[in-house]
Description:
This protein is of the alpha/beta class. The chain has helices spanning 14-22, 42-49, 58-63, 66-79, 91-94, 110-116, 131-141, 150-164, 172-177, 179-189, 197-203, 244-253; strands at residues 2-7, 27-33, 83-88, 121-128, 169-171. The chain has a single domain (2-145, 167-236), classed as 3-Layer(aba) Sandwich (Rossmann fold).
Amino acid sequence: MNIPVIFSFARSGGTLVNQLLGVHPDCLVLSEVNPSASVVPVTRQAADWLGLIGAAEVDQFHAIPYAQQVALLNERAKSKGKTLIIRDWVTANYLAGAVDGLAQPSAILEQPIYLARVGYSLRPLVVTRNAQSVYQSIQRTFPHLSDLPGDVFSAAYLAYARAISTFPRVSLEALQTSPRETLVQILQKLELSTDYIDMQLETFADFRMCTGNNTLAMPSATAHLRQILPVRSDSLADNVLLDSELFAEADRLMGYEA
């Protein structure tokens, strides 16, 4: 038995993909959840966003372990003719300082380990973005990470890239330049119907039952775009010293040419 899981580091296009899948009539997406921490608790998403648990069940559901929560929600989604998709908050596993109160991340992919405990394998898909752009977007977007050292980020990001290097992937850059073609790839890799592509591309911006720009103190510049457009490429500031070899290796593992 497998379950679709989207892996996307912070500021890599995960919210956009989440929105595109969120308006798909066959999908229910748990947004940025992880065994270590979730941006919005699984219980709240299950009750308020997905409608998979009732008010009387909230306390009991909240008390059961993470993997059992996912298994229960997956069965209920299936009973409604829906596919439950997990958007992993993988940043919590790799980047120190990303989660308040989590002193040191595990530096491993926790999602597959926990899901295996309830008999699930993964149907994975990675949404990638150029490492340099990820780093600068994290600095711009999260005040508590505005001074994130380049060497700390590059080491964490490379560890993540190594962990997901064998998984199927699509890039944010491809999604921005060729939205329709890339969305087809996403749906096919997740074994979802491609019958609703026009609707998805027209309505994704209205989908707000997900994390990302909805949960930022200051929404990003692309938060209210109603169509998918290319964004400018980031260039490194002169005063930022990075280990370019680590960045290049992470990009190579994610399918970017040198």
